[in-house]
Each structure stands twice: as C-alpha cells, then as structure tokens.
C-alpha cells in the first residue's frame, strides 16, 4: 500500500489441470480495484535429477564417462519456495471488463499437470483516506473459477508509511523503493529469468502483516483490512487526544489544588519569617503542589524534550565524519540542557527564599519528562528523527494455490 492510496500487488498463482484436455486459457477477476497496469508471466520450473545411475562412456570417442539421469523429479508448483533456474514466458492479458481478465496460456497445461502464473498489477480502490490523513484499506485477493486450497497474503507499506498492527519500521534507506514496486516496474518493462525468480521468491513472504486462508470456494475472495498513515498518531488520533486531555486535566487539578492551599493560608513561608512547628507540615505540602513548582517543572521538561528532538534531527542529518563540529555541538547541547534543568530550580528557589523548592521542582521535572515521553510514544514516534521511517523492507503481494 502506497502513500497516495495506490496498491501495488504481485501474485503467484499455482494451477493444476484436473480435466482430460489441455488447459489453454486461464480467467480471473480482480475485485475492488480500478486496475491501471497489469502484466504477467507463465512460470516453468526446472526438472532436477534424483538418481544419476552408473557411469557410461560418452559416444564421442573421448573415452570420457558420464552419469545419465535414471530418475527425474516432477516440479512441485505448490510447495516449492526457492525458485532458481526457472524459465518464463510473457503473458498477453485481455481485459474483459468489470475487473475480469483472460489469458491464452503460451504453453497449455497438460492433464494432471501443473503450472504457475506470476502477475503484477496496480491501481486504486482498496484504500480510503480518512480525515486524519490515514488510509483505511480492504485488500481483496484474486477470484478464480475454481477452489483455492491455500492462500497467503502479505501486506506492507511504502518507506514513509506506518501500518497499524504491523511490525516496527526498520532499515529503509532514504529514497528507497519497496520491492513490490520494483517488481512491478521490472515486470512491466520486461525482466530476465533470474530477476523473475527473485520476484517469485519474494511473493507473500515476511510482510508487516501476513494472513493465510484455506479452502476458498469458487469465485471467493479473501479480504485483509487495515489502516496505515505517514505518522503513528494518525492511526489512533483519539488515543492521542485522550492522552493529551488527561495530562491537561492533571495539570489543571494540580494547579487548582495548589491555589486552594494558598487561599487557605497553607503557603510556603519566606525565610525571614520564623517557622513554628505547626507550620512545618503545611509548608511541605504547599511546596509540592504549588503552581509555581508545577509550571517550572513543566517548562523545563518541554524545553529539554525540544532540545533533544532538535539534536536528534541534527545528528541524523549531520556529517558524522566532521568530528570537531559534532563534538562541539554535543558539548553545547549538554551545557544548554543542564541550564534548562538548573535555571528554573535556582530561579524559583531564590525567588521563594527556600532551597527546599529545588527538590519540588526536580520532582516535577522528572514527572513531566515521563509524561512527555508517554505522549511521544503514543502519538509522535513515527516522526522521530532518530528513526528511519518505513515498513518492513519486503515485497507486498499474495501467494495463491488453486487446485
């Protein structure tokens, strides 16, 4: 699934001819998609030798010996997963309308024999864009006029997209192209047998989401639903909104509590006023819940988070071979970060004439940093400059066996 809502699909369909006559044609339907491009190849697996037999002289007068093959294996189009040395013939695919297609097979499938087709197509219709910018998709497999024994669907997304419920984004180089898109391009323009073997090996393997199905009826399609977007918060906007509202509510309650305590006279006493034993407990309580300490901790946490975010973005783009600049920038960021933490503590402690305030501000700095980290993990991790965005670097497609 691509960032513009387009789907790029690569499929391998293994077919057995159970009739008494050669199968010269194959028909199928692609439901739910307005196909803009389609191409395909008929795959022919190589026959390997199981028993070479006894050596015999080669009849060319050289006295050299050869081991003739006494027994060959029949290629298994349904269970083989490592394709090497296969040959391919390009298909002419006829559009019959309403998503239906027909193929006159270049090589007819003999009775009780098998063959396989490799298809690649792209189009729109599976995905619908939501108000948040996320896409809800419903992928539907090809329908065929026969029962389907086994089916595997592997779904992935573009390098800058995130799939809900999929594996974490890993190892996509900047500007890279998903393998399914490369496979589609290769099949559209023509590809070598070796390239097509590579494409066939990748179909239906190791996607961010993989689903399987068995024993589908005639003309039955298997659907896979999901959501993807270019930022994780777009996948669950309500979860993020509730998290932010919860934090704001906590801030409001804490500040209201501190103001109520101040209104009742339970305020921190200046250092010049003699403290009496009866004031000890109220002073400690007022210091922790004082609006000043709460806001000072929040201010420090937000500035420190912004500083780390910016430094991460810089290191992600910076030339790491420039050791002097990198080292100097790191030291500068550390010094500024220390000031961001220390200055609010010192300023409020001096203003209140009580260094116990330093402990209260530090406590709130830690708590607010935990809250900021929670919100970041909940909704903004997709935009982390320290991460390389993207889906699993694997093909997206479907592997289907029809019988």
- Give me the count of strands: 19
Strand order in the largest sheet: 8-3-11-1-19-15-17
Largest sheet: number of strands, sense, barrel closure: 7 strands, mixed
- Please give the count of helices: 8
Compute the CA-based radius of gyration: 33 Å
Total domain count: 2
How would you describe this structure to a colleague?
By secondary structure, the chain is of the alpha+beta class. It has two domains: 209 residues, Immunoglobulin-like, CATH 2.60.40; 147 residues, no CATH class. Helix content is 35%, strand content 27%. The protein contains eight helices and 19 strands. A seven-stranded mixed sheet has the order 8-3-11-1-19-15-17. A four-stranded antiparallel sheet has the order 9-10-2-14, with no helix packed on it. A four-stranded antiparallel sheet has the order 12-13-18-16. Strand 9 and strand 10 form a beta hairpin. Helix 4 packs antiparallel against helix 8, helix 6 runs antiparallel to helix 7 and helix 7 packs across helix 8. It is elongated. The two termini are 28 Å apart. The relative contact order is 0.18.
List keywords for this structure.
403 residues; alpha+beta; 4-stranded antiparallel sheet; 8 helices; 19 strands; 35% helix
